[in-house]
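Re: Re: ligand-bound prediction request (bumping)

Still looking for help on this. To restate: I need the protein modeled with flavin-adenine dinucleotide bound, output as structure tokens. Inputs repeated here so nobody has to scroll up.
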Amino acid sequence: MRNFDLVIIGTGSGNSILDPRFKDWNVAVVEKGTFGGTCLNVGCIPTKMFVHTADLAATPALSARLGVDSTLDGVRWAEIRDRIFGRIDPIAAGGREYRMHHADNANVTVYEGLGQFTSPKVLQIALNDGSTETITAEKFVLAAGSRVVVPDVPGLADVGYHTSDTIMRLDALPQRMTILGSGFVAAEFAHVFSSYGVDVTVIARSGALLRGEDEDISSRFTSLASAKWDVRLDRKTVRAERAGDSVRLHLEGPSGAEVVDSDVLLVAVGRQPNSDLLDVTAGGITTGPSGHVVVDEYQRTSVDGVYALGDISSPYELKHVANHESRIVQHNLLNPASLQASDHRFVPHAVFTSPQIASVGLTEREAIASGQRYVAATQDYAGIAYGWAMEDTTGFVKLLADPATGQLIGAHILGPQAASVIQPLIQAMSFGLGAHEMARGQYWIHPAMPEVVENALLKLVLD
Ligand SMILES: Cc1cc2nc3c(=O)[nH]c(=O)nc-3n(C[C@H](O)[C@H](O)[C@H](O)COP(=O)(O)OP(=O)(O)OC[C@H]3O[C@@H](n4cnc5c(N)ncnc54)[C@H](O)[C@@H]3O)c2cc1C
Ligand SMILES: NC(=O)c1ccc[n+]([C@@H]2O[C@H](COP(=O)([O-])OP(=O)(O)OC[C@H]3O[C@@H](n4cnc5c(N)ncnc54)[C@H](O)[C@@H]3O)[C@@H](O)[C@H]2O)c1
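Reply:
Sorry for the wait, this slipped through. Here it is.
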């Protein structure tokens, strides 16, 4: 059994831990799939590259309203797909090559295969070449991420469905696509494929899309989406079958039984942590009810010397969180006498759909549930000069603040460039800048989009 100073399992954010400071450590990296993990290969990066082209494809339909007539002549799917993966795949391959063969990594052994704990700090690896190797180490980093959940719908396994892992590599654009689910992945791919001209049906279990968002955001988005896509709310999916060339879903909803036929079915009902694949229980590592590895503020698991980061331990399932935690684990490995804690106070997210959505801090529902005193203010994009230029009629910024201190406790945006417009609000919350101080303590470029934030801040009625 080979012994290491450090074993890292997973090459998503786990792969960023190693730098020259680890040159004297004997390190093993274990990866069962494509180097670089979810974000690079099947997540954030390719999806946003598709979203950018979808935004372009959607522009002619929007610009006629402003007196600029143009037409969408076509979407060259195969060319878009091959350009995107022609850029990403070599990055993944280059990362693998670097870790496996570059002189910088002379102290690193890469094992390509599935790692599973057999006892505390003992990992058995089923290598891709069919052999098995068992390794052990003083320290471990669990960075094995999460995977797509497939719901238990009778017939689903036999009809041929896609997930976010496969949908971006379709051979050709379908005419009709059904998306089962109503979260991040559903909202982003519905925008991508509908902008390319695909007829999209979205099936939601509950009465709203993106219902984890602030209620005002979720209800505005649900009504905008329902005008563009065939949105079926409050539906239970009871069965799936093939009907000729179509995938048929049998649903039950407010008006009884119905069927939806489409050429392609995308299943997007969430992700689950890979703690079971890794058999962390055999490694003595505690998991919570959701299967996430339990960590303390220093990213330490229940076993001394074993750290975890990213989707395997984080309910946020976001790349910027995995990256932050990876920096914390890196520091704590190198500085055991002065541990740093992760900062999860203000974790933002954005949904790159149309319109974009971005959020940080408490929703109004959460603020009410917390029992704390708060004030809220809303500013429409339509009320600022750049909103006039865009003739935007649906976007808004909603802020929540503590009236006693002036500190922001939540910010929610639906509208153009929401993911960028929200950044100064994240900064203010992270550094404790008061709402009115933020509004009046700096210039706001006129007439630019962030004026929507300035005006929302000024509307907050503080003590
Ligand atoms: C479609 C999609 C779009 C997304 N878009 C965004 C976005 O825009 N912004 C954002 O912040 N987040 C986004 N995310 C989420 C983001 O991709 C994840 O939060 C992030 O990649 C998690 O990183 P990680 O390092 O924890 O895990 P991963 O990147 O998943 O890495 C885990 C690695 O571990 C390997 N592994 C797993 N089990 C084992 C084992 N037993 N043995 C060996 N290797 C193993 C896996 O093969 C994988 O390579 C998106 C996710 C999806 C699916
Ligand atoms: N822009 C981003 O940051 C981004 C983009 C994509 C994904 N992600 C990450 O990936 C994770 C996974 O995304 P996702 O959209 O798959 O999950 P999600 O948790 O965002 O949404 C899943 C949705 O499916 C619904 N659902 C669950 N079971 C169902 C069933 N049996 N039938 C119908 N609906 C069902 C849920 O109610 C929920 O609305 C997200 O949590 C997110 O953190 C992030």
